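We close this part of the discussion by returning to an individual protein. Part of our work consisted of pairing the sequence of a single chain with a tokenised description of its backbone. What the numbers capture is local backbone geometry rather than side-chain detail. The amino acid sequence and the backbone structure tokens for this protein are reproduced below.
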Amino acid sequence: MSAATKKTITIRLKKGLVACNPVQRATVVGLGLKRREQVRTLENTPSVRGMIKKVLHLVEVVSETR
């Protein structure tokens, strides 16, 4: 699979991490998000989708390419 045809998912951190437990905070940092309203585009893999599912109340899926 070439770099141009890889599936990606774009996420945005919509809430702050002040009141989160340490596991949720570590998951958000593992996704590469550090501050509110920050946007990251990641490869759409089962592990990334599982991380997003764990903190779905903190992040928003902006777009998804298939």
Q: What stands out?
A: The helical segments are 22-30, 46-54. Residues 3-64 form a domain with the Ribosomal Protein L30; Chain: A, fold (CATH 3.30.1390.20).
